[in-house]
Amino acid sequence: MIIGERKPVSEIEKMLAGKKKILLSGCKTCVAISMAGGEKEVAELASALRLISARDGLDWEIEENVVERQCEKEWVREIEPKILGADCVVSLACGLGCQTIADLYPAKQTYPGLNTSFLGVPEEQGVWSEKCLACGDCIMFETGGICPVSRCAKSMRNGACGGSADGKCEVNLDTDCAWNMIYERLKLQNRLDLITQISAPKDWSKSHSGGRRKIVRKDLLIQPTDRTDMEVKK
Amino acid sequence: MNPKVCIMLSDCSACSGMGKADTERIVSLLSQESAGRVILIKSLCGDEARKSLSSVAVGGCDRAVIGQWCPADRTGKAPNMPKSIDPALVEIVDLSLTSDKAGKGNVERTLGTLAQAAARLSLAEPLKERKIAFASKAVAVIGSSGRAVAAAKLLASHGMQTKIIMPNSHSMKADRIEVIDESAVQCLSGIPGNFRICYTRKGAETETDAAAVLLVGERCFADVKPPKDSKIMVTPLEQFAERPTGKVGGMVFVDDLNAFNSEADVVVPAWHMLLEAAKTAAKNNLADNIAVVARDVKAAGLLELVWKEAAEAGVKFIRYDDKTRPKIEKGENLISVKDLVLGETLYLQADVLVAPITTRPWEPVFIEKLFVPSDWDFKARSRGPQRGVDQSSCDGVFLVGYSNFAKLTDEVEPELSSTIVQIAAMMRQGYHIAKAAVAEITEAKCSGCFTCVRTCPYRAAEMNDSWKAEIIADKCQGCVNCVAVCPSKAIELKNCTRPQIAKEVAASMEVVQ
Amino acid sequence: MSKINIIAFVCENHALSALRAASIAGETLPESVKIVKMPCTGRLETTQLIDTITAGADGIIVVGCLEDNCFHDVGSMLARGRVNRIKDLFKDIKMEPERVEMINAASVSGAMLMLKMRQFEDKVAALPALPFKGAIK
What we know:
The complex is a heterotrimer.
Chain A (H helix, E strand, L loop, with lengths): L1 E5 L2 H7 L5 E7 L2 H4 L5 H18 L4 E7 L5 H5 L2 H6 L2 E4 L3 H10 L4 E4 L1 E11 L2 E6 L15 H4 L26 H11 L4 H4 L38
Parallel strand pairs in A: 2-3, 2-4, 4-5
Antiparallel strand pairs in A: 1-6, 6-7
Chain B lengths: L4 E6 L2 H4 L3 H14 L4 E4 L5 H6 L10 E6 L21 E5 L12 H16 L7 E4 L4 E5 L3 H12 L3 E5 L11 E4 L2 E9 L2 E8 L2 E7 L1 E6 L15 E4 L11 E7 L16 H13 L3 E8 L7 H11 L3 E4 L7 E2 L5 E5 L6 E5 L2 E4 L8 H7 L9 H4 L13 E5 L10 H18 L1 E4 L4 E3 L9 H5 L5 E3 L5 E3 L9 H5 L5 E3 L4 H13 L3
Parallel strand pairs in B: 1-2, 1-3, 3-4, 6-7, 6-12, 7-8, 12-21, 13-20, 14-15, 14-20, 15-16
Antiparallel strand pairs in B: 5-22, 9-10, 10-11, 17-18, 18-19, 23-26, 24-25
Helix pairs in contact in B: 2-4, 4-13, 6-7
Chain C lengths: L5 E6 L2 H11 L8 E6 L7 H9 L4 E6 L10 H18 L7 E5 L5 H16 L12
Parallel strand pairs in C: 1-2, 1-3, 3-4
């Protein structure tokens, strides 16, 4: 899921200079589960902002709200009156949710209350770690299900670098060397032949390095196409 | 419906240090603010006063706050209240903490404390604990050794219906004992008084019921086999004393036979027994070289003395860790182990290898299902919520011997007797009290994130078939931690809701302005 | 009459026993401390701690069991984590982090608890007054 962290309140405070009616909009999906921008975190931020407002005589009117999934326009439209009625919106969703509001209501100032951090998994309660970089060309079938792109500091493609020692990464001794893990995993699966195979360099054009990505599934489009089967852009 | 709180204030000046004028002033000030009634009563430390309380006129109030000047414990049992008061909505407030013991009146603080209690009570719901009668009349003993059989016999001799479930075969016929032999326990579930034990016997899966379970810490699952094709003679630690003596070149004591299998988990079952046996072997000169090879060399408390004696008698202690396990050298009477301090490999002569066959209380079925202590170090977190020495974190599951924590061998016998007493008391009671206030999940709000399942110390939160969390009411102890951690605010626990806490906090501050 | 408000969130287990021990020993609660009981300090959410300040508290004490001996296993540890989070938040927004403290008490530590409460009361009384009394409900 998408993992984020709420920005320091002092940073959010600066964004709100001169505003009065502030809408806090959280999301019930990824950021709620990663305890960064769900209903409770919206309440926490609201309480902190109300404290600042009362202490500093700022007269803020804080409204709290959470939408089901802030990256879907329909869910955001549900709270249109609240958005239009506010001087600004602080989105506690990931960057996607924040932009969904901002793009739908471009005249309204929408601020990010969250730093969107990475795609990650909950390792244990309270610990989330990055495991995917969305490189667009997954090669985990060759690496026993361990992603060297995200879990290796250098995204090495064909085995560990010279800095790997005692199974740890030289960049951060707390981090396991991904290629060491891949070796152990392939050994367990009796597929060490994959380790000796040299893989071709990755096609990084499929990752963000190749530019902003977009997927169009023609079989799913509801909008009309013209007779030459070209999609009609809206 | 506006619930009316009746505030009853004890007029006892001996404990309050307040004269009549002050007490009456409190009543008058409270009456102005309160919707219910405010009355003076006699102190409840006297029988008469407690009895007379039932006839006090409370004017239609359904709940009451009783302000007492001595700590609540001193007043004995809860008093009989007038009929219109719901007994589940009575709160005895201990005013002794806020009374000025120098004998001066403290009207404002008393006012504040009573007003705060009344505010809390005004939002309270009458919740009653539930009595769930035991479905079974039997106690199940799980264990494989003579000690387990002795436990079963002792229970039966106290009149309790007993079932003993053991992996080995046993032909015992005794009154009130049902022997379930050649069986392996697969799953333990249920609530105190109503446990269900699933086991496999001769390939078939069956179940049996029990009201209480006693785990006797001998090996319940005899799955570790001594190494084959070796000149080394393996002796079980428990039968060490019965081994025919005769001096040998080398004797090695190891903490777990699984140590030689680098794939297996190693545990530290009977460390103290290991120490004692090694010490005895050294003192009785049973071998030229005696060594103890163990993963965790613990010598705290009582064990320190035993360790010292063993070391002074010539026993060598070598630590291995999970990554460098000892090995039995092929075809030789040698065990090699890497000395972690020096970094060299030591070769120990091992004509006799002594290893425990006891106790693996950390079999998954016990840890995961019933949260049985799995760390002999007695760390509270791995052990679960606070319990007595012979209790697991699950009421009704008792532990004896090595399945609990390591102790000197001769301590086990009295421990068994005292545990039997506890079991007898539980069986005599015949019912389990399930908490009044239990957590409740609103399924529609649940996002299936597993946070409550991970947090609950009592394993009372589980995912249901629709991938939503639900609370097993009979397991819930009302600790209210799940309510705070749920990211979707889907869990609530009555009488500890957000509005109630906020109202009480607000009421606590009203008086001071 | 005290000029400050201190709210002490006390768990009903070891912390309450500590209070009782104090009471039996003849101790008195410091003047400005008001007790709010709950089944476990793990119930407290960060939002509630902030709201308690804006509702008029000058200081908050969270009294729970000793961390490796919490009656409900995880509660006092979680409570301390949240108290620390609020301290960090307060530092960030230029509020005094000393206004919120966690005290871990064994069930017999009546005297220690009273002492720590008195020390906390003195510390909070020395801080600049907060403007929240009655400001927000």
